[in-house]
Amino acid sequence: MDIQLNDILTMKKEHPCGEKRWKVLRVGADFRLRCLGCGHEIMIPRGKAEKNIRSIERMP
Q1: Cα–Cα distance list, 42 to 7, 50, 60 (Å)
Q2: What is the arrangement of strands in the sheet containing 53-57, beginning at the earlier edge strand?
Q3: Which of 8, 33, 40, 48 could form a disulfide with 22 if both were Cys (CB 3.0 to 4.6 A apart)?
Q4: What φ, ψ does residue 24 adopt, rounded to 5°?
Q5: Hey, how many other C-beta atoms are within 10 angstroms of the C-beta on 33?
Q6: How many CB atoms lie within 10 A of CB 40?
Q7: Element (H or E) spanning 51, and its range?
Q8: pLDDT tens digits for the chain (60 residues)?
Q9: Integer CA distances (angstroms), 54 to 38, 60, in order
Q10: Helix, strand, coil share (%) of the chain residues, nearest 5
């Protein structure tokens, strides 16, 4: 899966704040994602993140 910095990922499950969209801050073996609802940042393994992605929005 081709995921790049600053992409917006829509996930299958929502964050406790109610938002499903996350911004990609770091790409590698792990992703660093920021919730677009509350600003919370997480590190998540690539495999787990890719399994839960519903759609990807490219940001120019």
Answers
A1: 15, 14, 23
A2: 41-45, 30-35, 21-26, 8-11, 53-57
A3: 33
A4: -85, 120
A5: 22
A6: 13
A7: helix 46-51
A8: 899 999 999 999 999 999 999 999 999 999 999 999 999 999 999 999 999 999 999 977
A9: 20, 20
A10: 10, 45, 45
